[in-house]
Amino acid sequence: MNTFPTDRTLRIGTRSSPMALAQAHLVADLLRKEEPGLQVELVPVTTEADLWQGDLAKLGGKGLFVKQIDAMVQQGDVDMAVHCMKDVPGDVAVPEGLVFAAFLPRDDVRDVLLFPEGSALRTLDDLPAGAALATSAVRRKAQVARMRQDLEVVRVRGAVGTRIDKLDGRKPVDTVLDAMIVATSGLERLELTHRGRQVFTVDEMLPAVGAGVLGLECRDGDGPMTGLLARLNHGRTMAEVTAERAMLHGLQGHCNSPIAGYCVTGQDGRLSLRGMVFSEDGSAFVRAHVRGESSDPAALGARAAAELLGQGAREIIDGIPH
């Protein structure tokens, strides 16, 4: 078995946002526990997508969050990358020469509603008609529209902490915001869970594919690195994410596609995968719920995609009117 040399500094490529750095520090700590004495260095980078404040789809999609760091891993500038799996494109293959050697145990996948600091409001129902609700995800926008068509959904981008500053009026924003939806796991990473009000169930708001999962990526041919990372892998999470991403790939979904997918492992060890595809305004949607063996998660994902496509998912994704 290849062992990672303790005289070699392990370099982790990461985005420079506070949450990305927190995630990279978490991984560094886990690696040091596996290999006492291991030297770990974080190499932060501000990606093109981090600097862009407009619609990500116009820039090329969420994949730009990972593309620059992937190139650093390929070129040997860093040894590995920590990626939020919900940001990893599903319509294209993992870049040549790279592999996800491990997935950490999944965090809370649910979305949560926030209000400006000092607000007495608690739930989505408390918002008056016409209130401005901020989110950066078309998936959330589509599902909010199914619950409250009378709200004005405003796209607000940036790191979670920056978005919360905009909600509280500490940073400039074009529209005064009445509420905001973010990921529960993001609040936890930033130790801001006290800000959360209404936590949506997965029935109310189905999560994004790969939600709450950190993937650890490295060069496929780096035996010591893949061997070390494999020791952190959570098998159940790997099977669930594989099913979700196979569904996303079958749908050829991209960052601007309102697609949701969530796989869980039942007490019997079998996988249960739910998928939904929405029009952006939430008026049209299709759904599938399939079950299968954990030994072949990719086949389960392909089956879910086929069911959704059979119901008209392609037309919805492409914005073709029904």
UniProtKB/TrEMBL annotation:
Gene Ontology MF, one: hydroxymethylbilane synthase activity
UniProt domain Porphobilinogen deaminase N-terminal: residue ranges: 10-223
Required cofactor names: dipyrromethane
Listed pathway(s): Porphyrin-containing compound metabolism; protoporphyrin-IX biosynthesis; coproporphyrinogen-III from 5-aminolevulinate: step 2/4
Enzyme class: transferase
One annotated GO biological process: heme biosynthetic process
Reaction(s) this enzyme catalyzes, per UniProt: 4 porphobilinogen + H2O = hydroxymethylbilane + 4 NH4(+)
CDD domains xref list: PBP2_HMBS
Gene3D superfamilies for this protein: Periplasmic binding protein-like II, Porphobilinogen deaminase, C-terminal domain
Sequence ranges assigned to domain Porphobilinogen deaminase C-terminal in this UniProt record: 239-309
E.C. number(s) listed in UniProt: 2.5.1.61
GO cellular component, one term: cytoplasm
Pfam families per the UniProt record, alphabetical: Porphobil_deam, Porphobil_deamC
Keyword check for Magnesium: no
UniProt keyword annotations, A-Z: Porphyrin biosynthesis, Transferase
Family statement: Belongs to the HMBS family.
Function according to Swiss-Prot or TrEMBL: Tetrapolymerization of the monopyrrole PBG into the hydroxymethylbilane pre-uroporphyrinogen in several discrete steps.
Protein name: Hydroxymethylbilane synthase
Species name: Actinacidiphila cocklensis
Gene name in the database record: hemC
